[in-house]
Amino acid sequence: MKERLKKDKKFRRKLILAAAALILLLGACIYTLFIKPNLSNEVYIYKEETVARGDLVLGIMESGSLSFGESSVTYDLDLELDDDDDDDSDDDEDSETTKYLEIEEVYVVSGQRIEEGDLLFKLTDSSVSSVRRKLSSALTEARITLSNAQAEYDISMLSAKSTYDSSVKAGNRANADFQAAITASEQKVKGLEAEIAVLELEIAVAEEMLADEDLLESYENAKTAYTTAKETYEETDLHNSTAYTSNLTAYQTAKSQLEALEDELQRYSDTITDNQAEIEKKQQEIEDAKVTQILENQEAVNNYNSASLEGELAEEIYNYSTNSLSEAVNQAQTELDEIQGKMDAFEEFVGGDNQIYASEGGLVTNVRYEAGDELISEGAMLTYAKADEYQISIDVSEEDVAAISVGDSVELVFTAYPEQLWEGRIISITTTASSEHATTISYPVDILVLGDTELLYGGMTADVTFVTDSVTDVLYVSKKAVFEENGVSYVYKKDASGNRVKAAVETGFSDTASIEIVSGLEEGDIVYIESVMNKNAESSSGSTEATEEEPDMNQEDGSDGFGGRPSEGGFGGASPDNGGGMGNSNSFGGGGGGPADNMGGR
Fold first, then answer.
1. More confident position, 563 or 467
2. ∠ at Cα 345 (341, 350), nearest 5°?
3. Other CB atoms within 10 A of residue 313 CB
4. Separation in Å, CA 442 to CA 399, 437, 601
5. pTM (whole model) above 0.70
6. Tell me: the pLDDT tens digits for 348-395?
7. What is the DSSP code (8-state) at residue 523?
8. CA 216, CA 265: separation in Å to the nearest integer?
9. More exposed terminus of the chain, fewer Cβ within 10 Å: N or C?
């Protein structure tokens, strides 16, 4: 009996252990099949995309700012003369208007676009006339100075030649005497001719002054003033002492001014008369001297043939004298040429109408002068950027710089005009890195903006695309919509009934975001992009965390849902009418089957 009870006790123990093991196994199955899926659930979201037609571009993109090289309308006249500092005029204002051009009107402003031939500035007629008179007077004085220097040169050269000839003919005193006589005769003739030239120039100056409009106008004004003052004075009542004294003073002043101008005009007239008489006298002296010179020259020639040259020293002295004398003539000629150059440049600058025009088109960047300003210093009057000088400078990394070269075309999109495309051309690539110590090595690249630049201004930001490859007018979709199975490319597209179907496609060119569809789709077709969301439930806090994963299109096609996962909350069946849940307005997704009116089953 005891032995039987012992066996029953062992059997019950085994039965209890077996039941416990079965319960544990059953619990593990329930956890695995029902509890665990609810703790970690994947949600699939599907976004629609339309098949489009357009261009695909593969390239390198950088950003930079627009700048431009500046050209200018320059005032570069040098109107300063050596005698400017010695001007004894008491009227400072008149002195200033004599020396500088004045702007009467400015016709452009900064930011304005100009074309070739546009009017930019107008100069006052009075300032142009004053500067022209100043330069003309300086030219006349320079010509007189050169004539005097040339005359002195000729005379001195004759003297130097005489000394030279006397030295080399020292062996024959008689010959030296004859040579001195010849030289004296020639010197006299040359001297008289030089004196006549000076007299003729003085006559020219006097005639010019007698015809000077300003002087004649001053004289006429002085005569009028004198006549008026005299009449007023003579008509004054002697008993009115105040009026009599005032009118007498005005009369005496007007008379003094008139007499001074008459004296000045008379001096010029006397100069012409006296010089003409002196010229006739000297011309007769020249004729007499030439007759004497012929006789003396003949005698000197006869003696010269018997003379011998003497020493190298005489030649050195002669050369030194020649150089010294010619230097003064050259300096006078140089001064005349400089003043003539200033006059020529002045006439070219003011033109025929005292106005300055644009020589080419561009965008005005700065206007230095305003109406009423004087052109005192040289420099740019106006700066502008030409249409072919718009540039963008960017830095290209060492990984990308090998893919580009000077002359390559680029695409430009300015932030201010996001819908408009410009073309550019690489004009330079600096071979030295912009920073040798930076983490990323880059190289400065300059790009010339081509085409119409009328809308562009300095400092504008632009995205620059270096095109390495491209296709035009092709169908394309997002690369995320295409997946591959067994070497064949597929997409999920919406059919005429609104269902998703898997369709094989042939792909082609691809950029960083889109891929060309060679066949299998039409423009306007709807395809789907799948995104995966992981929802992790924490039993301790009851919180839910969702994270989006990369799309996974490589799955078996299910008859009841997208990618064979209707039970996991995919599209929820072939259509929403089958009870499939719909996600938000931008994507499809949510829970699985449910009532037909239960939309958005998350």
1. 467
2. 150
3. 10
4. 9, 11, 52
5. no
6. 998 889 999 998 888 888 899 999 999 988 899 999 888 777 888 888
7. T
8. 9
9. N
The tokens describing 537, both together, are: 């439930």
The set of long-range contacts for 160-165, using a CB threshold of 8 Å and a minimum separation of 24, is 160/318, 160/321, 160/322, 160/325, 161/318, 162/187, 163/317, 163/318, 163/321, 164/314, 164/315, 164/317, 164/318
Task: Tell me 33's DSSP state.
Answer: I
Q: Residue 257 is inside which H or E element, if any?
A: helix 241-304
Q: CA 547, 549, 555, 559 torsion: positive or negative? A: positive
Spatial CB neighbours of 517, under 8 Å, sequence gap ≥ 6: 51, 474, 475, 476, 477, 505, 506, 507, 508
Question: CA–CA separation, 555 vs 565, rounded Å?
Answer: 9
User: For residues 474 and 52, what is the distance between their CA atoms, to the nearest angstrom?
Assistant: 8
Name all contacts of 309-314 with Cβ < 8 Å and 24+ positions apart: 309/168, 309/169, 310/167, 310/168, 310/169, 310/170, 310/171, 311/167, 311/168, 313/167, 314/164, 314/167, 314/168
Contact 47, 354 (CB under 8 A): no
Shortest CA distance to 54 belongs to which of 556, 505, 472, 492? Answer: 472
Residues contacting 454, CB < 8 A, separation 6+: 113
> What residues have CB less than 8 Å from 92, skipping those under 6 apart?
none
Query: Within its chain, how far is the Cα of 116 from the centroid?
Result: 16
Q: pLDDT tens digit string along 204-234?
A: 888 888 888 888 888 889 889 889 988 888 8
Count of positions (residues) in the chain: 602
**Structural Rg of the chain based on CA atoms:** 53
Separation CA 337–CA 331 (nearest Å) = 10
Contact indicator for 188, 174 with CB cutoff of 8 Å: no
Beta bridge mates, 445: 394, 429
Of 268, 264, 259, nearest to 225 (Cα)?
259
Alpha helices in 377-490 (DSSP H): 398-401
Q: Which amino acid is at 99?
A: K
Confidence (pLDDT) at 14:
73
List pLDDT tens digits, range 74-102: 988 888 876 655 544 444 444 444 578 99
Q: Summarize the confidence of residues 279-289 as an average pLDDT.
A: 84
d(CA 102, CA 131): 10
Hey, what are 247's tokens? 């009118």
Share of the chain above pLDDT 90, in %: 17
The label of the residue with tokens 């599209």 reads 571
